[in-house]
Amino acid sequence: MAAPCAQVGVRLHCSGRVILNKLETWRQLRSFSRSLLSRQTATENAGPVQEIVIPKKKTWDKLAVLQALASTVNRDPTAAHYMFQDDPYLTPRTSPEFKLYSLSQESGRNAAKYIVNTYPRFFQKDFAEPHIPCLMPTSVEPQIGELSEAALRERVQLRRVKAAVDVYDQLLQAGTAVSLETTNSLLDLICLYGDKDPVREDDPEAMEAGDVEETQDDTRRRKGRLRKASDVLGVVWRENNNAERIFNLMPERNEQSYCALIKGMVKYGAYTKAFNVYTDLLNNRMTADVCTFNALIAAAPELKEKYQDKWALITDLLKHMSEQKVQPNLLTFNAVLKALRKCGPLGRVQSLLTLGEIKALAIEPSLATYDHLIGIFYKAASTRGPTEILHEVMDEVEGKSFVAQDPDDVYFFSDAMRICLELKDLELAYRLNRFLGVGDNWQLLGDFYQQNYYYGRFFTLLCIMENLDVVMKWYRDLIPSLYYPNSQGMMDLLQALDTDNRLDLIPEIWKDIKKLGHANKAELVEEVLAMMAREQHSPEVQESFADCALAVRAAFAQGDGGRFKLEWTASSLGNIATLLLRAGRTGPAWEMLQLFKANNRVPGVDLVTAYLNCAKVKNNSAQAVELVRLSSGYSLPITAKLACRVKEEFELTNEQKQSLAEFEALTSDSDSDSDSESDKE
Fold it and tell me: In 3D, which of 114, 246, 111, 129 has the Cα closest to residue 189?
């Protein structure tokens, strides 16, 4: 009975505690309600009560947590680029390795897409939460086999240009009418890809040929962005192609039909035809859309030779937009500014008026707007003095965060930094770099090439204008996490070391030169050796220089992984020998004399004298006699003086004295022969 009584007692005790807690809670709620009621009464007596608005539920973006976490960390300059974190072993150290790794990653993604899209039956389960559509297989093969308009729409959706054209022709031959909407979609597809099937990203066979073309296109685009679109794309508008043929076969045409054909002609360089089709559109009392006007404005400078005529054609198009009540957008004004870059001095005046019109219409400019503006005012071959337009642009954009709105947005930073370098304006470059770090502006820096252009110009300007401590701080911050310098960039760094008289850092820089893959650049290697051998330094520095000289000698012997091998020159051999002699490395230094002979190079007089001084310090008569023999073999003019010095300053054996006498006789014979030849002349 004791145990049940104890349990009952425990239960009663717990129940009592629960009741007491509830009574206490009720008492607190009652006092809170009384205080709240008294406050409400006081508020009513004081005046009208403001309505309490309960905010609605905040809907967060799916990436909000990741963005919040990303905002708490900064870039680690000692870490590799984020795209290489998956495989640190293959982290690139040079610019070619970076390009190879990037292309390899892209090829791997394309191969995965090819497998997923080719065999979709093996990838039906969706494990992703939330659902990620781009990771699921997509249909790449037509599923509708019968001849119908639905089959045509399917091939248009799959971007099968040739297959869609074939189905369209078969429908016309069968007497089946195709709707205007479907025909316009087909016309859009043909004009977009220039009457050719687009290269599939996940097609390995097509990409083998497409990679070469894409690389050439990128090169052409980097060399000149203002060239014709047909030159950049490598495709021209053929006479009476499928787009024109289908357009002429259409029983009825609407504005979309004309606009698609005009934009395709402009894209592939048929500018005259595009304006002719635009004239037909006006004659049919139709209105072009804003994208068509943008394309025509971009093509206008290609039709006229004189600057005034180019601008007159552009203004006519703008008047047509106003008459047809077509509202211009940002890309319209960017197209005008881009066209004004080809209008010479006229572009400066009209560009400012265009910028004022942009602000009057409350359109927010993009980075491409400012890039075209500074491109108009700053010409590489211009004889005019520098203007302040870039300073005004920086005053306008500083502190703002931009998003991509125009394909040319990515050229602003590299072009602006080029101007900073040409003007030698370091403060402006710092402002531009701070602007790059605002918000997501770094995403508009462009691809790897644009990024390298930007940081390369910035680093060159730092080497020219800034003190070495600041240069080295930026050097460690940028390389190689953001910037892979070329040989000229490392040459600029060496010049900065020379200017601040900090040649002791050269061995450290040489290690980076080798890591960055520039150890096979003869000009750079020669500069490193020449700077170290120019003057005598402290013993500690000379020791580090000697170690560096041996590393450079190994680079001459091995080359760049066996692919590129440097050729020995007299200056490189002499500088390495000098550095070794100054550090007291007599063994490797005397080995350099053999390299002179093996590479058919002649040592300088000063170097031979330095060798003799080294032999004197060591009191090595055998080396002194060998040096006289080598000097005689090279037919140096100081051979006789060397022989005399060796006789006077060294204790020689009879055999060594006899050898010196023979060298003196040979030298005197060669001198007499040269004197007789000069007398005959």
Answer: 246
Closest among 551, 503, 557 to 530, alpha carbons compared: 503
d(CA 577, CA 363): 67
pLDDT at 34: 57
User: Is residue 644 included in any domain, yes or no?
Assistant: yes
Cis peptide before 96 (omega within 30 of 0): no
Does residue 295 lie within any of the structural domains?
Answer: no
End residue of a domain, out of 234, 253, 282: 234
Total domains present in the chain:
4
Residue 156 lies in a domain: no
Q: Which of 569, 601, 633 is the last residue of a domain?
A: 601
pTM strictly above 0.90: no
pLDDT at 609: 82
**Model confidence pLDDT, tens digit, residues 157-181:** 988 899 999 999 999 998 888 999 9
> How much is the pLDDT for 387?
66
Q: What residues make up the domain containing 566?
A: 505-601
Residue-wise pLDDT tens digits, 382-423 = 544 556 889 999 999 999 999 999 999 999 999 999 999 999
- Closest residue by Cα to residue 378 from 407, 327, 410, 420: 420
Instruction: Identify which of 387, 391, 367 has the alpha carbon closest to the alpha carbon of residue 377.
Output: 387
pLDDT at position 33 is 53
Give the chain's residues under pLDDT 50: 1-16, 18, 20, 36, 42, 207-233, 381, 383-384, 561-562, 671-681
Tokens standing for 268?
A: 């592939």
Tell me if 213 is assigned to some domain.
yes
Residue 346 vs residues 136, 312, 514, 645, 651: alpha-carbon distances, Å: 53, 11, 50, 77, 85
pLDDT of residue 215: 36
Instruction: Name residue 383's amino acid.
Output: T
**Domain check: are 379 and 467 in the same one?**
yes
Secondary structure in 3-state letters for 248-308: HHCCCCCHHHHHHHHHHHHHCCCHHHHHHHHHHHHHCCCCCCHHHHHHHHHHHHHCCCCHH
- Give the H/E segment covering residue 661: helix 654-680
Residues 510 and 559 in one domain: yes
- Tell me the HSE value of 620 on the side-chain side, using a 13 A CA sphere: 16
Residues 467, 369 share a domain: yes
Q: Are residues 230 and 117 in the same domain?
A: yes
Q: What's the first-to-final CA gap in the chain, in angstroms?
A: 144
> HSE on the CB side for 574, CA within 13 Å?
16
- Same domain, residue pair 369 and 454: yes
Neighbouring C-beta atoms of residue 73, cutoff 10 Å: 7
Q: Exposed, middle or buried, 551 (CB in 10 Å: 0-12/13-18/19+)?
A: middle
Rg of the chain over CA atoms, in angstroms?
39
Sorted by sequence, the CB contacts under 8 Å of residue 154 that are 6+ apart come out as 142, 143, 144
- 621 and 544, same structural domain? no
Instruction: Round to whole Å and give the CA distance between 435 and 441.
Output: 7
Residue 75 carries which DSSP code? -
Query: For residues 399 and 498, what is the distance between their CA atoms, to the nearest angstrom?
Result: 37
Alpha carbon 338 to its chain's center: 22
Separation between Cα atoms, residue 666 and residue 639, nearest integer Å: 10
392 and 463 fall within a common domain: yes
212 and 127 inside one domain: yes
d(CA 168, CA 148): 9
